[in-house]
Amino acid sequence: MRRIAITLDAFELSPQALEQAVRLAQRMGAQLEGIFIEDIDLIQIAELPFLREVRTISRSEGALNLVRMEQELRALARRAERLLSEHAARHNVAWSFRIWRGSIDSDLLAADIEADVFALTRLGAALTRSKVSPARATAVTVLFTGTDASMRALDTATSLATDPQRELNVLLSAEDEAGMAQMQELAEKRLGEEAANAHFIRLPDGSITDLLAILSDTRSAVLIVGRDNKLLQAPTLRQNLNSLDCPLLIVR
User: Fold this and answer.
1) What per-residue confidence (pLDDT) applies to 130?
2) pLDDT tens across 103-123, in order?
3) Which of 38, 132, 150, 244 sits CB 3.0–4.6 Å from 226 for a disulfide?
4) CA distances in angstroms from 163 to 107, 237, 247, listed in the order given
5) 191 in the same domain as 162
6) Which of the listed residues 120, 147, 170 is the one where a domain comes to its end?
7) pLDDT band at residue 169, thresholds of 50, 70 and 90?
8) Which CATH number fits the domain that encloses residue 171?
9) Would you tell me the crossing angle of helices 148-160 and 15-28 to the nearest 10 degrees?
């Protein structure tokens, strides 16, 4: 593994997601790249003449200003870069930083980002947020479908779950018990000796609702999926990310 990329959002910088990515980079001897997201949809909204901005502190109202918004995004990017630097220095991990502008749903996963693992957090200007993941959440959860990408995702999950206090949950996408047994056998073969410490859970139809319930019940601190997982399909990527209460690691 050579490079791990993590998205850094103007609206919600997640120390938990950063810590997961830095820890993985340290164990794999990989470089960490922070990518600050400037959502083009938000920038285009700022150009609309009829929209107004209400400031939370002063409670004053004014027209949205594109120039001011871009200045504030640059200030938030500097803050994100500083946070990345602090976490990377704490674990002696090499890092880099850049700013990316585009559409989250249509451009993000297709962008020219050379990384073996892509760490995503909730992105974009959401008016409502799901609850913050509790501090006691420590489990590493991986979605396993039997594809080559999900095999690599399983390897990544095993690397993150080496701490004694971390549980490894393997979600198996299977329609029935027979399919569950076949998928579990495939996962156990890949895990080898680590299979004895893993918890295998069936995800019947792969719906986001069932997935969220399992993540909550298992106190998952991170969800790992392969690049070909349907959870990442546009145009639902933004919605799915904003539904998750934990960082999402995409293994290519």
Assistant:
1) 45
2) 776 677 776 677 888 887 766
3) 150
4) 35, 30, 18
5) yes
6) 120
7) very high
8) 3.40.50.620
9) 100
